[in-house]
Amino acid sequence: MRAGYQNSLLAPFLEVMFALLIFMPGSSLSAPQSDARRLNEGLPAEFRRTPVHLHPLLDLRPLLSPIEVKGAAPAPAFEIFVEELVARKNLLVSLPANVRARARSKPGFAEKLAFARSQAALGLEDFKQVRLDATIRHLREAAKLYAQLDHQLDDPRSVARIELTRGLALLEKTEVADAGPAFVAALRADPRIRLRPDFDRAESIAALERARLDLLDELRKVPAVPPSVLEDARRLGVYIVRSRLVPATTDHPESIEATIVSPTGSVTQETEALDRPDAPSRLASRVWACLPFGQEPSTRRTARDLARVDVGYAYFIFAENPLEVFGNVGAALDVSYLLAKNMSMELGLQLTNSGRDREEHLRVDVLTFRGLVGAGAHFEAGPFRFESHLGGEVASIGRVITTTDSACKHFVPEDGRGYDGCPPSSVDATEGAIVAGIGLTAGASVNLVDDLYFALRFSGSEYFFETTELDLGRPIGATAGLGYRFR
User: Fold this and answer.
1) Residue 235 lies in a domain
2) How many Å apart are CA 273 and CA 287, to the nearest integer?
3) What confidence tier does 15 reach under pLDDT thresholds 50, 70, 90?
């Protein structure tokens, strides 16, 4: 009966504490501002803008012409698109020229490019000497290296030339099925490249023409993202935007396609038809909406405005114990309040119920309430926070009844038989006591998401005062729980 009464006290306390944990985050949330309003009101000086790398435009309009197009036509729509993105103050936009210059400065870039060019030179010389197998081998290696370097953005004509020559060598070997993809790769790198009717074989010209028509049929498909681009986005932690200017067909007007590659590897494509004056601005707005807004500067302050509250489970043992060691399990609440930089006050509360010792000399569950108020220090390293506090502890230890007489473990007054066969002198009963002393806690926490964290603490206490003489003391234990940080 007594144990059941004690458990009935513990249950409501647990319910209240865990309800507090559930509703804590919602208590400090407010309606978020729209991105447009945040831009209009101005961004803080330390605002972390979203990094965006713009790759050069791939103009596919020359694919419409069966003969070579000389020079590059202007693309004012793309220029407006770039200007609109740069104007978004929450974005840190790197222009195409800067992106390529940064790529060329990467360690090992020059060496790898030199080797790729040497392979390309060998392949082209092999083709002049009609060494077709060597041609294919060297040009395939050069094409692979150029793809790793995304070299078609720097020198599309060179990349297209080696792919075109590789296709011609495969065609010479009557490997028509393999020649087609090589011609398509050449046109993807430089849509203007063509063969010369007065110099090249009619069969080769026809094969390249088939590749051009096949590529026109595939223009509306989402382009594959090269592995090198995915790796750059992940390694640099940036969003990469690759754009294509797709020519008009009988079914679709001329349009710009923007492919967005995130640092996590996800790919998003936005397409805007250039059939209205505001089309580039509309595309820029859609791309902007697909990108993270950026990060506000940390709102952490060093004044008295920061508190941390966590609730969870508590467990401890009494190191000073006349019985076999028994565990005490319950709920814990911890509140930490910032006093100054790296200094804080801590309030720790625990309500626990005991188990039984191995010999079951303890006859009732012991309900214990502990409260600690202390001061201490903390420091943070990335998502981790380490802390330690020393202070005073007051505890209420409930009724303790023990016996070593086996008869007393089976017959109690409530069963109607009294202590029949159990001499009163064999039962040691204490109605409970208030004890006080000092307590020390040390622990760590790790940020999970937003202001939610997980905390683990270890504690130990020494009691110097007790209202009733007890043989229980020196509790040693730990708590673990989830918490919320108030800013």
Assistant:
1) yes
2) 14
3) low
Whole-model pTM: value is: 0.55
The DSSP symbol for 362 reads B
Confidence at residue 369, expressed as pLDDT on a 0 to 100 scale: 94
Q: Are residues 193 and 133 in the same domain?
A: yes
pLDDT for 152 beyond 80: yes
Closest CA to 348 of 323, 303, 316, 304: 316
Buried/exposed 269-282: b ≥16 CB within 10 Å, e otherwise: ebbbebeeeebbbe
Number of domains in the chain: 2
Residue 16 counted as domain residue = no
Residue among 294, 245, 252 at smallest CA distance from 81:
245
The verdict on 335 and 455 lying in the same domain is yes
Q: What is the pLDDT of residues 275-325, one digit of tens each?
A: 999 999 999 999 999 999 887 765 544 334 578 999 999 999 998 888 888
Residue 102 domain boundaries: 50-290
Domain of 454: which CATH number? 2.40.160.20
Identify whether 69 is part of a domain: yes
Residue 28 pLDDT > 70: no
Q: Is the pLDDT of residue 47 over 50?
A: yes
Listed in sequence order, the DSSP H helices in 67-153 are 76-87, 96-104, 109-128, 132-149
Q: Helices (H) and strands (E) in the chain — how many of each?
A: 11, 16
222 plus 331 within the same structural domain: no
Contact (Cβ atoms closer than 8 angstroms) between residue 483 and residue 334 = yes
Q: How confident is the model at residue 225 (pLDDT cuts 50, 70, 90)?
A: confident
Out of 226, 257, 290, pick the residue that ends a domain: 290
239-246 and 50-54: which strand pairing?
A: parallel
